């Protein structure tokens, strides 16, 4: 087809118009037969979609890919991606293009099924309406002795596709029967528009036709029909019989008009870059789109590490079974959202936060990734204690999710403890990065855990762990023993002094697997002091001949370990745990380092209020009482401080400011009533408590206080 059209454009093939149309028709029929031979029927529930609903807007490439899909899930994903490629506002929940398309189908079925047994979408008017939408205007010509029933539709053209600024399409019910058909100046000619076209052209009419037309229009019936339309109906209709371009008359525009008519039928297909379809076919195993809300399996590693002395982080790595990516234009993207919740053993929430991990890949990046597994890393600080950890990972593009739920323990910094072993295929040591805080990073060493614990004989096995609470003597003189087992038989022992590792707060051992036969192994690492084995951890791993695909990692760094934001984070964790003195210790450091932070001040004041240090709490909060960011909590806490310090007038003022930020809160109304009562203003106290009862009538103590005040009146 490409060489044929090229030769026509260059003049390599010359033929008459009718011959050209016949050849093109033959090629079209031949191509259609080939296409039909290649396209097996899709399952019944997809047949209507491909053969009716999108038949006019789907491109040949998209159709070809759709017929190559093998499962219903792939077809559903492709259909969703098909609509997304056409969505003009991809950032919104609605797909206006899809909605408009189905509206057009519904309109066509309702308005264009007359005069035919076809459904409205199958008619020529239905096809054009679905493809181009509502015309600018429609001129209708009823059946008369001069014309068959006609409709002239006007549209704005798109210069991007080489169209005129405005064009028109003509529909005719030939011989006054059957459906309206799209008129083609070359294939039909003006004689198809009027019953009077069989008459001979009178000499008077010939005089009104330009001489050059007589040379170009060989069929006298077409000239006679043109004359009838021009003189008996309208010049505009006569012009349209030769040309689809208003203001451009005559047979010179018959061929361009026929080309336009062919192009507008596939106009919606030209608006789409359909190379995404082949990309989907190639990468459908790893690139998916919105399909359903479903759970996917995952592997994970949760590890508590001491990132700096006395400061512990919970580090996690999670590998979802599949990572679904969405495509928009030439980029593959997704947005992963993690939601963390930690509760203590009494089910109090200690930590709760969410974090987004946007992913955007170029085509070449995706090709390099291939079938490699995906790892998501993250970490956050955590105070000592025993917890239940819950992680929810959501793929916001595909609505898939996975979760992790387990018990964890953060040791006391002074107690002797050994972390579980992290087996890694890769580590990275970069002293220039030591100021950053990343998951599985201690000082300048970044560890990349192997979740599957699978290694090849061509790789090295890196073993990483920490021992906390070592006294100075055994930091130097302790012994570490690495025992390797295969089938429960000890095959190797490595023994080293703890001092050999440089007293850096962690231990990293490198083991070559070159001489290891493929199979299953276990590694035990034990710590000995002068007398006995004190600590030990064991992990199993697999050795194979060929290397495994290395994961690609997505993570986000945390603030530097020296950032005072950690005082605020840890202080709030102690506050949530009910350890108020420790909370005050951390939050005091936070407010000293961040004196302009209202959040730090509020948390510190909350801990001080619980410890009944009202004077100190007020001192902390007063500098913020006149700032624009002042909020309910600030005025409420200031009110509590003033009330406890028996400055009732000031307390009432703060409480009223609190109400202006959040409305009628019963705790505040009750406190206002109490302040008025304590200051001797019983009438105002009564009003405040009555207002509180209007908000919540089920307050027995307040009801009794109101009753007592009324009885004393």
Features:
flat; Immunoglobulin-like; single chain; alpha+beta; five-stranded antiparallel beta sheet; 713 residues; six-stranded mixed beta sheet; 25 helices
Please describe what this structure looks like.
The protein is 39% helix and 25% strand. The protein is of the alpha+beta class and 713 residues long. The strands form six sheets. Strands 5, 8, 9, 10, 12 and 13 form a six-stranded mixed sheet that branches. The protein has a five-stranded antiparallel sheet with strand order 16-17-15-19-23, with no helix packed on it. Strands 18-25-24-21-22 form a five-stranded mixed sheet. The protein is flat, with a radius of gyration of 40 Å. The termini are far apart.
Set down the secondary structure blueprint.
Blueprint: H1 2-10, H2 17-38, H3 44-53, H4 60-68, H5 72-85, H6 96-111, H7 124-132, E1 137-141, E2 150-156, E3 166-172, E4 181-182, H8 203-207, H9 211-216, H10 220-233, H11 235-242, H12 254-265, H13 267-270, H14 275-283, E5 294-295, E6 298-308, E7 311-320, E8 326-328, E9 331-344, E10 349-362, H15 363-369, E11 374-381, E12 385-395, E13 400-410, E14 417-418, E15 422-429, E16 441-442, E17 445-449, E18 454-456, E19 460-465, E20 467-468, H16 472-477, E21 479-486, E22 489-497, E23 507-512, E24 519-528, E25 533-544, E26 552-554, H17 565-577, H18 580-593, H19 598-610, H20 614-621, H21 632-644, H22 648-662, H23 666-678, H24 682-695, H25 700-712
Parallel strand pairs: 5-13, 11-26, 18-25
Antiparallel strand pairs: 1-2, 2-3, 3-4, 6-7, 7-11, 8-9, 9-10, 9-12, 12-13, 14-20, 15-17, 15-19, 16-17, 19-23, 21-22, 21-24, 24-25
Helix pairs in contact: 4-14, 6-7, 10-11, 17-18, 17-19, 18-19, 19-20, 19-21, 20-21, 21-22, 22-23, 23-24, 24-25
């Amino acid at each position: 087809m490409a060489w044929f059209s090229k030769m026509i454009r260059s003049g390599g093939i010359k033929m008459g118009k009718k011959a050209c149309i016949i050849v093109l028709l033959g090629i079209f029929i031949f191509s259609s037969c080939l296409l039909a031979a290649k396209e097996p029927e899709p399952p019944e529930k997809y047949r209507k979609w491909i053969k009716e609903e999108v038949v006019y807007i789907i491109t040949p490439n998209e159709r070809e890919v759709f017929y190559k899909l093998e499962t219903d899930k792939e077809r559903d994903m492709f259909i969703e991606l098909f609509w997304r490629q056409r969505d003009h506002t991809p950032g919104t929940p609605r797909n206006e293009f899809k909605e408009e398309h189905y509206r057009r189908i519904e309109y066509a079925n309702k308005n264009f099924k007359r005069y035919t047994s076809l459904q409205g979408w199958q008619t020529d008017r239905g096809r054009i309406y679905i493809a181009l939408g509502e015309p600018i205007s429609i001129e209708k010509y009823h059946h008369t002795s001069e014309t068959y029933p006609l409709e002239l539709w006007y549209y704005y053209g798109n210069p991007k596709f080489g169209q005129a600024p405005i064009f028109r399409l003509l529909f005719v019910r030939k011989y006054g029967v059957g459906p309206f058909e799209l008129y083609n100046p070359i294939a039909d000619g003006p004689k198809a528009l009027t019953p009077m076209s069989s008459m001979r052209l009178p000499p008077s009419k010939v005089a009104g036709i330009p001489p050059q037309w007589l040379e170009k229009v060989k069929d006298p019936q077409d000239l006679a029909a043109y004359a009838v339309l021009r003189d008996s109906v309208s010049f505009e209709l006569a012009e349209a019989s030769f040309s689809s371009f208003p203001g451009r008359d005559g047979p010179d525009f018959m061929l361009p008009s026929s080309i336009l008519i062919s192009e507008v039928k596939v106009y919606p297909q030209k608006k789409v870059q359909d190379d995404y379809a082949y990309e989907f076919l190639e990468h459908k195993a790893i690139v998916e789109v919105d399909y359903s809300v479903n759970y996917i399996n995952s592997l994970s590693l949760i590890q508590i590490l001491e990132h700096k002395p006395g400061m512990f982080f919970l580090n996690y790595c999670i590998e979802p079974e599949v990572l679904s990516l969405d495509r928009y234009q030439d980029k593959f993207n997704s947005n992963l959202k993690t939601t963390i919740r930690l509760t203590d053993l009494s089910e109090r929430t200690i930590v709760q936060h969410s974090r987004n991990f946007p992913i955007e890949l170029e085509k070449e990046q995706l090709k390099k990734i291939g079938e490699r597994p995906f790892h998501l890393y993250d970490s956050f600080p955590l105070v000592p204690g025993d917890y239940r950890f819950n992680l929810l990972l959501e793929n916001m593009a595909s609505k898939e999710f996975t979760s992790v739920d387990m018990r964890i323990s953060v040791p006391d910094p002074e107690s002797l403890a050994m972390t579980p072993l992290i087996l890694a295929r890769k580590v990275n040591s970069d002293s220039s990065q030591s100021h950053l805080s990343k998951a599985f990073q201690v000082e300048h060493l970044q560890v990349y855990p192997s979740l599957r614990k699978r290694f090849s004989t061509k790789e090295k096995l890196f073993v990483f762990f920490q021992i906390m609470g070592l006294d100075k003597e055994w930091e130097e003189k302790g012994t570490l023993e690495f025992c390797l087992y295969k089938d429960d038989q000890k095959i190797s022992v490595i023994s080293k002094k703890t001092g050999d590792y440089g007293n850096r707060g962690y231990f990293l051992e490198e083991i070559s697997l070159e001489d290891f036969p493929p199979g299953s192994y276990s590694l035990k690492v034990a710590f000995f002091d002068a007398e006995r084995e004190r600590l030990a951890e064991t992990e199993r791993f697999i050795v194979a001949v060929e290397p495994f695909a290395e994961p690609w990692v997505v993570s986000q760094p945390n603030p530097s370990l020296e950032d005072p934001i950690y005082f605020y984070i840890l202080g709030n964790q102690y506050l949530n745990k009910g350890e108020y003195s420790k909370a005050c210790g951390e939050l005091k450091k936070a407010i000293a380092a961040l004196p302009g932070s209202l959040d730090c001040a509020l948390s510190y004041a909350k801990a001080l209020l619980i410890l009944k240090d009202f004077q100190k709490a007020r001192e902390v909060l007063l500098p913020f009482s006149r700032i624009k960011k002042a909020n309910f909590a600030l005025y409420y806490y200031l009110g509590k401080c003033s009330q406890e310090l028996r400055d009732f007038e000031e307390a009432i003022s703060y409480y009223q400011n609190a109400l202006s930020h959040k409305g009628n809160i019963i705790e505040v109304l009750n406190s206002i009533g109490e302040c008025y009562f304590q200051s001797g203003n019983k009438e105002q106290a009564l009003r405040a408590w009555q207002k509180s009862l209007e908000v919540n009538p089920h307050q027995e103590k307040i009801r009794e206080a109101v009753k007592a005040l009324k009885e004393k009146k």
